[in-house]
């Protein structure tokens, strides 16, 4: 089945640092989405990408839909403590009755001790 | 609050018992999805509805699982004869079909089977 490889699995940040994470797939997706999940809560949508090559920003967050439609990245600039959490990429294939999201395993952001 | 809501937020049950979860989607959304998430993993698709029709079921959805959306609004997910392996977070998402199909998630129901 379809799988997404998300990296890194975890990273430590200091306030003010920029952060990058990415997702790759062996399959083509029509849509890429990035979610953030806090402990005990559901995923919250950060950015949705609908066209190959699209670059979209949401405040300090920037995400791109890869030109091959098999990858996406998310950047967070000037990180702050509330950026801590787990970030998930998700790909979606539309058409027919399909519409379910395929998720990566997440990138856990923690604060450097 | 007009987001997706789920009830209960937490459920502890003994092995062999039946449990039922409810999801209320965003009011104008016609699609409703159920996902399961275990520790350290991303959510995995279980099933989805367009209005009241159940259009797709994952192989993860064993015979002990059943989902309904009788009037095309709220949905219920029932697990019969629960097993310890059913312990997970059960997430509901909704979307409005169109050119794009962006899914918004609820807070989830955490199930613990003892």
Quick tags:
heterodimer; A: 113 residues; mainly beta; six-stranded mixed sheet; five-stranded antiparallel sheet; B: 114 residues; seven-stranded mixed sheet; 49% strand
Task: Give an overview of the whole structure.
The complex is a heterodimer of chains A (113) and B (114). Chain A is mainly β and 113 residues long. Chain A is built from no helices and eleven strands. In chain A, the strands form two sheets. In chain A, strands 2, 4, 5, 9, 10 and 11 form a six-stranded mixed beta sheet that branches. In chain A, strands 1-3-8-7-6 form a five-stranded antiparallel beta sheet, with no helix packed on it. In chain A, strand 4 (31-37) and strand 5 (44-49) form a beta hairpin. By secondary structure, chain B is mainly β. In chain B, the strands form two sheets. In chain B, strands 2, 4, 5, 6, 9, 10 and 11 form a seven-stranded mixed beta sheet that branches. In chain B, strands 1-3-8-7 form a four-stranded antiparallel beta sheet, with no helix packed on it. Chain B is globular, with a radius of gyration of 13 Å. In chain B, 35% of the residues are buried. Classes of the chains: A mainly beta (113), B mainly beta (114). Chains A and B meet through strand 4, strand 5, strand 9 and strand 10 of A and strand 4, strand 5, strand 9 and strand 10 of B.
């Amino acid at each position: 089945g379809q799988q997404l490889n998300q990296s890194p699995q975890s990273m430590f940040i200091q306030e003010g640092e920029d952060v990058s994470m990415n997702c790759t797939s062996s399959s083509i997706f029509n849509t890429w989405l990035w979610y953030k999940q806090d402990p005990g809560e559901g995923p919250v949508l950060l950015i949705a990408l609908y066209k190959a090559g699209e670059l979209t920003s949401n405040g300090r967050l920037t995400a791109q839909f890869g030109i091959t439609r098999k990858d996406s990245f998310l950047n967070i600039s000037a990180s702050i403590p509330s950026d801590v959490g787990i970030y998930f990429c998700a790909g979606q294939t539309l058409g027919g009755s399909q519409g379910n999201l395929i998720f990566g395993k997440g990138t856990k952001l923690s604060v450097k001790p | 609050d007009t987001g997706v809501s789920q009830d209960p937020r937490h459920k502890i049950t003994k092995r062999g018992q039946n449990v039922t979860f409810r999801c209320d989607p965003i009011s104008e959304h016609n699609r409703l999805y159920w996902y399961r998430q275990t520790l350290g993993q991303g959510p995995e698709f279980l099933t989805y509805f367009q209005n009241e029709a159940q259009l797709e079921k994952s192989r993860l959805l064993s015979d002990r699982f059943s989902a309904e959306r009788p009037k095309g609004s709220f949905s219920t997910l029932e697990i019969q004869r629960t097993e310890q392996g059913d312990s997970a977070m059960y997430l509901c998402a909704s979307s409005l079909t169109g050119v794009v199909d962006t899914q918004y998630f609820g807070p989830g129901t955490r199930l613990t089977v003892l």
